[in-house]
Amino acid sequence: MDITPTDTALPPPSRGSVTRVGDRVFSGLARGSGIFLLVVMASIAVFLTIRATHAISQDHANFFTSFEWDANATPPVFGIGVLIYGTIVSSVIAMALAVPIAVGIALFISHYAPRRLATPLAYVVDLLAAIPSIIYGLWGAIYLVPHLKGLNLWLDEYLGWTGVFDKTDPEGAARSLFTVGILLAIMILPIITNVSREVFRQVPKMHEEAALALGATRWEVIRMSVLPFARSGIISASMLGLGRALGETMAVATVLSASPVLSAKLLDPVGGTFAQNIAAKFGEASPFGRDALIASGLVLFVITLLVNGAARLIIARRKEYSGANA
C-alpha cells in the first residue's frame, strides 16, 4: 500500500502582513514627535497672541504704523513701523550679499577645488557656522564698523544722489542698517554654503557625465545639470539663512543702537530690528511693557512663518522642473 506523505505545515506569512514591535514603536515615536512639535508651535502662538492682545488693546497709537515706543508712559504708546522696516531691510541686504557668494563657494568646493583644498576649506566653513553670535557682534563693533567708514564715504560721494546712500553725517561711525546687513550676510554665509554644498553633491553623476560627453564645458554642466537639480535645495538653504537673519539679536544690538526713527538712508545710525528691540528693552520694561515687546515678537513669529510658507510653495512649484524626481 503506497502512502504518500502530505505536507501539513502552514505556508509562511507574507512579509507585508508581519508587523514587528520595533516598527510599531518607531511609527508611534515618529507620529508622537510630529504631534508634539505641532502642540509646541500652537502653544507658543496662543501665548504670544494672548499677551499681545492685552497690550495692543491698551495702545494709544497705531501698532503697525506708529514710530514711537514708550510702553511705560501713561497712556502707553508703542508702534513697530520702524522695527518692521529695519528687520526687512537688513535681512534683504544680508540675503543679497550672502546668497550669490555662498552658492559660488559651494560650487567651488564641490566641483572646482581639488580634494586637498576642498576638504580643509569645507572644515573652515563649518567652523564659521559654529561661532557664537556675540563674537560676530564684537568683531563687527570693533573691526567692521571702523573699516567700513571708507566704503560709506565712497557710497555717499558717488551714490548719494540716489538718496539711499546719502549719509547725513559723513564723519560719523558706520553704525547703520547697511553695516548690520553686511554683518548678517557674514553670519548666514556658512549656513547657506553648507546646505548648498551638500545639495550639489547629490546631483546624479550620470547627468554631469552625459553633459560632458555631449561636449559641454564645466560651466555649461553646472548651468544645465547642477543648478536645475539643486534649485529647491538652494531655496531651502536661503530660507534657513533668512531665518537666522530675521531673528538675530546680539550681533545687531552690538553694532546698532535701537532708534525710533524711520529713514530711507541706509548709512544713517537709525532704525532697529524686532529681536534687537526686545533684547534691549525687556530687562527694564514694566509688566505691560513686556506685553508690548511680546506683541512685537508675535509679529516676528508671523513673518517667519510666512517666509517659510512662501519658501515651501516655491519649492513645491519648482520641484517638478528639477531633476529631483528623475
UniProtKB/TrEMBL annotation:
Its main location: membrane. It is a multi-pass membrane protein. The chain crosses the membrane at residues 34-56, 76-109, 121-145, 177-196, 233-256, 292-315. It is found in: Cell membrane. InterPro entries: MetI-like, MetI-like_sf, Phosphate_PstC, Phosphate_Transport_Permease. PROSITE patterns: ABC_TM1 (PS50928). Pfam families: BPD_transp_1 (PF00528). It comes from the Bacteria. The keyword Zinc-finger does not apply. Keywords: Cell membrane, Membrane, Phosphate transport, Transmembrane, Transmembrane helix, Transport. Residues 84-311 form the ABC transmembrane type-1 domain. Belongs to the binding-protein-dependent transport system permease family. CysTW subfamily. Part of the binding-protein-dependent transport system for phosphate; probably responsible for the translocation of the substrate across the membrane. NCBIfam families: phosphate_pstC. This is Phosphate transport system permease protein. It comes from Streptomyces fildesensis.
